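Running log. JK asked me to keep both predictions on one page so they can be read side by side. First protein, sequence followed by its C-alpha cells:
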Amino acid sequence: MTAKPAAAAARATVYGYPRQGQNRELKKAIEGYWKGRVTADALRQTAAELRRGTWQQLAEAGVHEVPTGDFSYYDHVLDTSVMVGAVPERHRDAVRADALDGYFAMARGTQDVAPLEMTKWFDTNYHYLVPELGPDTVFAADSAKQVAEFKEALALGHTPRPVLVGPVTYLLLAKAAPGVAADFEPLTLLDRLLPVYAEVLADLRAAGAEWVQLDEPALVQDRTPAELNAAARAYRDLGGLTDRSKLLVASYFGRLGEALAVLAKAPVDGLALDFTETGAGNLDDLAAAGGLPGKRLVAGVVNGRNIWINDYEKSLATLGTLLGLADHVDVSASCSLLHVPLDAKAERDIDPQIARWLAFARQKTEEIVVLARGLASGTDAIAAELAANRADLASRADAAITRDPGVRARTAAITDADGRRSQPYAERTLAQRAHLGLPLLPTTTIGSFPQTTELRTARADLRAGRINEAGYEERIKDEIREVLSFQEKAGIDVLVHGEPERNDMVQYFAEQLTGYLATQHGWVQSYGTRYVRPPVLAGDISRPEPMTVRWTAYAQSLTDRPVKGMLTGPVTMLAWSFVRDDQPLGETARQVALALRDEVNDLEANGTSVIQVDEPALRETLPLRAADHAAYLEWATESFRLATAGVRPDTQIHTHMCYAEFGDIVQAIDDLDADVISLEAARSHMQVARELAGHGYPREAGPGVYDIHSPRIPSTEEAAALLRKGLEAIPAERLWVNPDCGLKTRGWPETRASLENLVAAAREIRAELPTEAV
C-alpha cells in the first residue's frame, strides 16, 4: 500500500551535530592551543573548516536547514553564558584581557581562579558548565558568535537555522553564585533575561535568519505551576516581538507533559518534539491538545542517542499520524546528534552483518532524509530503502549474539539473598577496621593515574607489532611500580595500581565481556576536549575469564599497604555504552552484574581486601520524570548489590560517583550498601557532604577535595578548608580524603603536587582533632 504524500513537502533537518571532526581535529587543535603549539588564528581556522565540512555533508545528504550556533570550543551552555553576559566576577578580567583565554578560564580554571562547576546534561554523559547567577546579575547581549556562524553558513549557500539554549532552560540549569543564598532561584531573573534574548533574536533577524531554534529540554522534566507560567510568559514575550525570525521551540529527551499545552498555545511558529521511545506519550498529548494548527512541527522520529538503525515502517506510521496534527511536518532526530559518533562506515573491524544494524550521525542523517522523502512522496519513492531496512532489522532479531541460554538461565535463578551482604554495615565496619588498620581520615585516590605519552605509545606499539606482548607487559609493570612508589612516598593510605593497562573505564571491560562490541572511531564528546568511545552492547553478557585480577595481585605483591581492586559498575557499563534496545535495561544490568560478581569474588580470593565498583552514572541515568524513578532505582541498586554482595564482611566495598546532582538519590546511595562512597565535591563546595548528613547517611564517605577536571593545583590550605567543611557534616571516623575523580587526564607534575597537598591537608586536620578521636 502506498502512503499518501504530504500536502506540503516534508523537509529533513537536525538539531545539532558532532563537533570534533572525523579525526578529532577540534580536540587536537584546542589542546595544542592550551600548550602553546597552536595559535588562536589556527584554532579558529580549524573550527571554521569543521563547521564548513559539517554543513556541506548535511546539505549533500539532503538536509534542508543546517543548524548553526551548535558548534562549541567547549560547551554550548558556557557559550550561552557568554551570549547573555553572565560571566562570573572572578573571570571578568581574563575575559576582558582575551576573550578566548577568558572563555577557557571559565571552563577549566587557572592556578588562581576556580572554573565554573560542571555537571551532567540531563540524563546523558555530556557535561555542561553550570551558570552562576545571583540577584545582582546584570545580563548583556553578545550575539557575535551566533551571528558570525549564521553568516558563515549563509555565505556558503546553505539555509541556516541558529540554535540557542532557551531562556527558561538556561535559568533552570543555573545555580546560585558563590556567596549568594542557597535558596536563590535563578528563574526569578527571567524578566531581566528576556530583553537580552530579544536583542540576540533581533541581531539574527537583521543577519537574515528566517527561523531560530530555542532549545527547552528542561521542560520535559517535572515542572511546578510557577515554572510553567514562566515558560508561558517567556514565549508570550518572545513570540510577541515585532520584526522577528520565526521561532521553533525544541524539546527532547522525553515527554513534554503539561508543558506541551503551554508551548502549543504560545505565539511561536513551531515546535520540535521527541517521538521515539523516550518521548512516549508526546503523540497522544499532541492529539489531546488539538495539534498545532497554523504551526510547523519538527518530528524527532530517529533516535539521536543510540546507534541502532531506525525502523522505517514504524517511523512512517508515526509521521503519517502527525500529518493531521500540524500545518507542516518536518523530520529530524529526537535530539542533537552530538550524542552519537560521526560515521559508522569508518568501523572496518566490526562484522559486516552487525555493521548493517548501526547508524551513527551520518547514517542517521541519511535515515532522516529517507523518511522525509517517504513522507513527502509516498512509500513507493523509498521502496528499495524500506526493503533493505526490513532485512537489516530481521537480521538483528535473529542473530545468535543476542541470546545466550546459559546467561539467561543464570539471571533467572537470582534470589533476593544474592543481593545482600552476610552482615549489616555496623558489624562489617568493625571487621574492616581491624583488618585494614587505617588511620582517621584515610587518604586514597579514585583509581586512574595519568595516562602518559609513553603508555599510549606502548599500546600503539603493541597494536602495530613493534613490540610483543611480553615487552608491553614490562612497560605496564614499570608504570605500576612507579605509581605505587609515588603513593607510598606521598603517604597515601589505600593505594591503586593506576590502571596503566586500561584505555577507558567502560571500554576496557567491554572488550573482555561477551556480547559487547568495540569501535575504533566511535568518539563521543563527554566534556570539553574529553572524548570517549562508548562500546556497543549488542547481546547477552558474560565474563569468559578474570579481567583485572592479574594486575591488581601484581600491584599488591609490591606493597604492604592495601591496593584497591578497580571495577566499573553495571549501571555505568550500560549508561556509557550504546545499550541494546530489544530488552529491558534492568535485565541487561543483571547480566552485567553477574559478570562483575565473578570478578569481585576472584579479586577477593586473590588477596584484595578493598574493592571499588564505580557507579558515576547512577544519578545521570535517573529518569527525568519522578514517576519513573522508583522502578529505575530498584533495578539499578539491585544490580550493584548483586555485583558486590558475595564477599566476606572484612572486605571493604567502595563505590564512586562524580559530576551530577546527588541530593535526590541519597536514599539510593544508601541502598547500594557500599562501605565507602567517594563523590565529587570540590567545585560544589562540599554540597554533597551536607546532603549525605541531611539524609542521615550511616556509612563512610569521601567527598572530593581536589577538582581533577581543572589543571590548577589546589593548595594544602584549600584542601584543608574543604575537609573542615566536610567534617561539619561527616564525623572524622567516617570521612575519607580523596580527589573528585580519576587522574587519567592530568599530567604527572600537577598530580604529584596536588596529591602531596591533599595528604598534607589530611595530616593537618588529623592534628587538629581531639586526642580521643585520634
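And the second, directly underneath as requested:
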Amino acid sequence: MKLYISKFILGLMILSVQLISAQNLSKSQFQVKGNCDMCKSRIETAAKKAGAKTAVYSTDLQTLTLETDHKVSTDDILQKVADAGHDNEKFKSSEAAYNGLPGCCHYERDLQSAPAEAHQHQAKKENEFYVKGNCASCKARIEKAARAAGADSAEWSAEKQTVILKFDASKTSSDKVLKAIADAGHDNEQYKTSDSVYKNLPGCCLYDRDIPFGEANPNVHFEEGTIAVDHKDHQASASPESHESSEKKIEGVLITGSKAATALSKKEAGLVFNIDKKELLKAACCNLSESFETNATVDVSFSNAVTGTKQLKMLGLDQKYTSLTKELLPEIRGLASAYGLNFIPGRWIESIQLTKGGSTVTNGYESITGQINTELLKNAKEPETSLNIFADFNGRAEANITSVSSINEKWSQTFLLHGNGTFGDTDMNDDTFLDRPKGTQINAAYLLNYNDLEKSGFGSHFGINFLRDERTAGQIGFDKNLGQDKQGAYGVGIDISRFQVWNKTGYVFKGKPYQSLGWMNQYVYHQQDSFFGLRNYSGKQHTYYSNLIFESIIGNTNHKYKAGASFLYDGYEETYLKDDMKRNEIVPGIFAEYTLTGLKYTLVAGARADFHNLAGTQFTPRVNFKYDFTPQTIVRLSAGRGFRTANVFAENQQYFASNRSIQILQNGGNIYGLKPEIAWNYGVSLQQEFKLFGRKSSIVADFFRTDFQDQVLVDLDRSPQQLTFYNLEGKSFANSFQTQWDFTPFKNFDVRLAYKYYDVQADYFDGRREIPFMAKHRGFVNLAYATNKNDKGGFWSFDTTINWVGKQRLPDTSGNPAEFQLPVYSDSYAVLNAQISRNFNKKLRAYVGGENLTSYYQKNAIVDFRNPFGNYFDGGMVYAPIMKANFYVGLDVTF
C-alpha cells in the first residue's frame, strides 16, 4: 500500500511540475516561408535548438507555432530559423543560406515575405498581435473587448489585420486581452473564437477563418460607400463609391490590402472585377481604350478606317450601353462618346472597377450592360513623382508626368500631365489614306485631397482637368490649312476642347462608423469642331451633375440602406451640315437601396425614379444576389432596368467619313424625334476556386441577357448610301456567355483563358437580323511570366495576349457595284500582342512590345478609296485591325 501511495504522490508531483511549467509557457504564431516536408523538418529543428519547447510548422498556412518560456526570446528563435534558410516576418535569410537549400525548398521570396516588402508581412511592433476582422464594426468590437479586459488603449488595423495594445502589465496581460477578443468573436494568434460566437457576428463581420495570419484579407475592400481614405497617407477620396485604400470605414467602404493585378471581388453581390495598375503595365496602355488588352470581358475594336477611332463593347453591345465613369462621376457620354476613350491617359489610372450587368442605382440610370469606373492616381505610401516616355515605330510619341505628395497631415495633392503627338504618315495598306490621324493632345489635371475623418469626420476630394486634342486624318497630302473645297485630297479635322471640375465631400457621423453622408458635384464643358470631307459637324455640351447619398443601418450592419437624390443637366448645341439642333435635358431623381447580409448570402435591392423633362418619368429597379455555397463556390444573380437618351450624331461619327446620308424616321419622341432607349438586363454567374498544381485556380462562367423595351436602331442595311435611325418595333436582344479560367501552372507564370459567345439580334424594318460587326465566337489567351526579384527589386516580365475573333455579319452592300460590295460575313482572324519589360530596380523600368504581331489587317478597309467624294466611298465598314504589326518602346522613371 505504501508503495502505491508513494507512486501516487510522485505522480502528483510530476503532474504539478508539468502544470506549473505549462503555465509559464506562452504560445505564439509567426509567418515563415517554406515549401515541403524537408522545410518543415528544418524549421522545427532550428526552432527547438534555439530554445522553443514545441515548434509546429504548417506548410499550407506558412505558419510556425511556438511554445516558449520567459527565458527564451521568440526573436532569437526566428533569427535561427532565418539562419537555417527560411525568411520569416521578422528576419530575412541571407542569400547564401537561401541558395544553400535543396531545390525543392526554394520558396518564393518576392511575395512580401520580408519586412520591407509589404504591410502584411512587416515585423510587428511590441504588443502588436494578429487579429482577424473585416470592417469598422469589427474594429469597434475588437477595441471595446480589449479595453474591457484592462487595456489602456487598443488600435486595430484592418489593412494589417493586427491590434496594437497598451496596458499596465501589473493589471492585465496580452494573453487576457486576446482571450477577451476571441470571446467577442475574433480569431487571433493566441486564441480562436468558438463557432457559435463567430456565426452570431453580423454578416459584414464574417471574416475568412482559413486565411493565415499575416496575409491580406480579401474581404477588406470597397463596397458602395461614401468616402475612401488612406488613413496612413492622409489621403481622402470623398465619393459615394470609391475603391481606394483606406483605414477608416464610412459604411460600405472597406480597407484594401495588397491587390492582385486583376481580381474578381468575392464580397460584392454583383460581378465586379478590380483591375489594378499592375495589370495595365502588361501592355502599352496609352489611354483607356488600350487598358483592356489583357482583359477578356471587354472587346476593343477599330470603328472607322479614316479616323482610326476605337470603341468598347461589353455583353455584345456597343459602349454607349455601358456606364463609363471617372471617380464615379459621369465621364464618357454625350458628345464625348466617339473619342472620350482617348481622354484618360493610361499612366493616370490607379485602378479600374468593371461591373458586368446591372450596377447600383446610386450611380444613375444609364447603365444597361454594366459599368466601367476609372480611379485616378491619388494614393502613395510616400511622395512620388514618375515620368513615362513612350514611342512607337510609326511616328507616335507621348510623355506622362505624375506626382503624388502630402501637403500636411490632412492635405495631399496630385499633379497629372500628359502630352502626345502622332507625326508619321502611316499607310500600311497603300490606299493613300492615313491608317490613324496625325495630331497632338495636351491633358492636365490637379487633384486635392483632404482627410480629417478621425477628428472632425470630414473628408473631401477636389479635381480639375483641361484637355485640348487636335487631329487630322484622311488622304496623305491633305492640308488642313486649306479649305476642303480648295484641294482634291479628302481630309478630316477633329478639334476638341474639354474642361472639368468636380468635388466629392463626405462626413462620418461621430460614434457611428456605419453612418455617413456624401455629396458629389461635377461640371463639364465639351466642345468639338470637326469636318469630314465636305461635311461639317460641331457641338457643345454643358453638363452639371450632383448626387447626394445618405447611408446607415437598420438595427445592425446586416441591414444597411442608402437613400439619396441626384440632379443631371445636359445642354446640347449641335450643327450637322446646315441643321442646328439644341436641347436641354433636366433630370432630377431620387433613389433608395437596401443591402441584406447573411451568413452565406448578400442581397442588394434598389430602385430609383427619375423625372426627365423630355423622356418622362422613368422607374429603374435593380437587384443583385450572391450566395456562397462554400468560400470557393459562389453563385450570383442579377436583374435590372436602365434607360438612356440616344445622341445619334455624336455616337455614330464613325459613319461620317463616308457618302452615307443621314435619315431619322421620327416617332413622336422629344430627342431628334425619337423615344428614349429602355432595356432590361438579367444575369447569372458561377465563380469556382480550386487548387491546381498546388496553386490557386479559378473559373468564372456567366450568362447575361439584355432585352430592349425600346431602342434607337442604327440601320446600315437599308442602303449603302444611307444611315437610318428609327425606334424599335418588335424585339431586340443580346445573349452573352463567357467562361474564364485563371491558373498558375508553375511559379510566377499566370495563364488566363476565355471563350465568349454572343447572339445579338434585332427586328429591323425588313425583318430580324444579326447586329453587324459582332462576332458570335471569340477566344482569348493571356500568358504572363515574371522572374524573381533581385536584391535591388529588379526583375523581368513577359506578357503575351492572343485574341481570336470569329466571323461577323457585315452590312448589306448589294446595292453597290460588284467591285464595291462586301461579303455577307467577314473572315475570322487572330491578333497577337506581346511585351517584355525590365525593372532594373524600384525606380527604373524599360519595356518594348509589339501590337498585332500576326500583321493581320483588313484589306480594302475603305470602300472605293480611290474616289472619296463619290457615291460609294465608305470608311465605316471596319471589322478588323487596319494596321499591320506596330512596335513600341517605353521608359518609366520614379523619383
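Observation for JK regarding the second prediction: Residues 1-10, 12-23, 111-122, 221-258 have pLDDT under 50 and may be disordered.
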